[in-house]
Design brief:
Elements (H helix, E strand, L loop, with lengths): L2 H25 L26 H32 L5 H48 L1
Helix pairs in contact: 2-3
Length: 139
């Protein structure tokens, strides 16, 4: 490829990118949107959004995620135990199985400590914000 064709290809690529970036600005000719334009009025009665406290919802999501991680850690320990049972006394297979078991136990310890920390922090956060809200509402 000659220098002239490289420059031409670069120019075409730059013009192409510029046109791709400029097309949305030209085509967005409509004014501001309202609720009816997005179809929110059609589904207004069918969507049930939670009316609970956001902090408690976040705590529930964290608990579910940590529960799934706990299940995965237990499965890793079970896989390690299964590999240990079928190793047949071979040194390398038993070593690998022991590594699985240790990794699963360490994972469980990390997950339990994460659960303890998050439950402590969230309980203190909920207590602190409820106290602040009651002080604000009473004054």
């Amino acid at each position: 490829m000659t220098l002239r064709s490289k420059k031409l290809a670069g120019l075409v690529a730059c013009l192409g990118m510029a046109s791709i970036l400029a097309i949305p600005a030209v085509t967005l000719a409509q004014g501001s949107l309202n609720v009816n334009d997005l179809g929110v009025g059609a589904i207004q009665g069918s969507i049930k959004l939670g009316s609970g406290d956001v902090r408690q919802t976040a705590a529930q999501i964290i608990n579910v995620a940590l529960g799934f991680l706990g299940i995965i850690a237990v499965v890793i320990v079970l896989i390690g135990g299964f590999k240990y049972m079928i190793s047949g006394g071979q040194q390398e297979k038993t070593t690998q199985a022991k590594q699985y078991i240790v990794a699963g136990i360490i994972g469980l310890a990390i997950i339990l400590s994460a659960w303890a920390i998050t439950s402590f922090v969230l309980s203190r956060l909920i207590t602190a914000t409820q106290t602040q809200l009651s002080v604000i509402l009473l004054t």
